[in-house]
Amino acid sequence: MIRFVVPLIAIVLFFLEPVFGLFSPIELYGEYRFLVPRFLIMYLIFISIYYSRNVAMIYGLVFGLLYDVTYIDIIGLYSFLYPLICLIASFIVRYIHQHLLVTTTLSLLLVALLEFVLYQFFLLIGLTDMSMSNFVYGKLIPTMIANSIFLIMLGWAFKYLINARFIQRLNQPS
Fold first, then answer.
1. pTM above 0.85, yes or no
2. Which of 64, 91, 141, 149 could form a disulfide with 79 if both were Cys (CB 3.0 to 4.6 A apart)?
3. Per residue in 125-156, pLDDT tens?
């Protein structure tokens, strides 16, 4: 049963992102703040760290392609970036401890990297004309706060479920 929980959570998070995206933008002190939920990529980072880099990269490719087809018109952007972020996470975790706090911090840093790369790409092709300071204060910081709240609430559950699946996989007869 737990075999299906890991991909099922990924599917649920894929469909929850646009629902939480409906809360954005938020007007605060006369300025708009954009909250971009990145639940799925944070979950994929946890899979990459606690379970398997290859599984996380396959999920990243599949869900990145689904994200490209469903939500944006540029095919290949998320299907390239999601597996790349998972690969970076798995390489970094070789040199640091896999504690939940460290994994949470790493996930947030990689989400910030993803947002920055997306901003630079959209700036390059002319889909946005937002200045760097508007990006940082109007989108990046609120996004990081919202995603950190999500990880604080559910990071331990992700780790528990992924570790349970890993233990189940180890105990299966070959």
1. yes
2. 64
3. 988 889 999 999 999 999 999 999 999 998 88
- Match 């970076």 to its residue by tokens: 88
Residue at 168: amino acid letter: Q
pLDDT digits 0-9 by tens, 83-112: 999 999 999 998 988 888 899 999 999 999
| 128, HSE (Cβ side, Cα atoms, 13 Å) | 14
Question: Look-up: residue for tokens 């646009």?
Answer: 18
Map tokens 């528990």 to a residue: 160
Query: Residue type at 52?
Result: S
82, 41 Cβ separation under 8 angstroms: yes
Q: Identify whether the C-beta of residue 34 lies closer than 8 Å to the C-beta of residue 135.
A: no
